[in-house]
Specification:
261 residues, mainly alpha
Amino acid sequence: MTSAAPLPPEIPVAAPVLAAPRPARRAPSLMTAAARIFDLSLARMLWSRGTVFMGLLVGLPVILSVLIRVVQAVFTPSMRVDGQLVTGPFVFNLMVWGMYLRFIVPVLAVYYGTALVADEVEDKTITYLFTRPIPRGAVMLGKFLAYFVCTVFVVLPSLMIVYFLMGLSGGGSLAATFPTLLKDFGIIILGLLAYGGLFAWVGARFKRPLVIGLIFVFGWEQVALLIPGYVHNLTIIYFLQSLAPQGDTGADGLMAVLRSW
């Protein structure tokens, strides 16, 4: 018998290399997600048609201040109301209360605050935000921060221009009036936060939030301040009025100045 042919040597087979498992993608934190929503929302707010409306709104006190200075320079350099000399700081304080706190701040908050969520729902784009792996609270937080930054950086230049036109005229000095300016600006910031938070909640909870906001500002708050008792505690303007030293006479005093022309 012939001997069997020797078997070929075994070829070592390399063990299959297993791919390393990819680390699980973690959802961003609340603040990280809010920062991304803030960046996106701020750009949309600044380049929207509402920016033109906001610019015209905050331009009203500036135009009125220029007219008052022209009237004072040409016709009545010593304007008096009820026998009292009307100085520049006096008019500035009246405009802070009568125009900014009573009109501009609520209107800006109603216009932008109610649209933070309502516009996303109406345009059917809220789904794209909620399908992302981000906390839902980050959507509201980021949009609210964008609203606040946008409105503050629009109101502040208007307030400063009015301050230099009226607050420093007629005997007003920087050292005497600047602390009042800081306090007035702080009250305006509180107003934007309070009204904006309220109307952002209204926009997220109710249909037609813009109508509800306008009824609250120009209906309920105006009536509640006239009702005796504690009903005024259900308004925002009452608490802002308690912080503003000129709040009790702001609107009436401003109208008296305009009638004196």
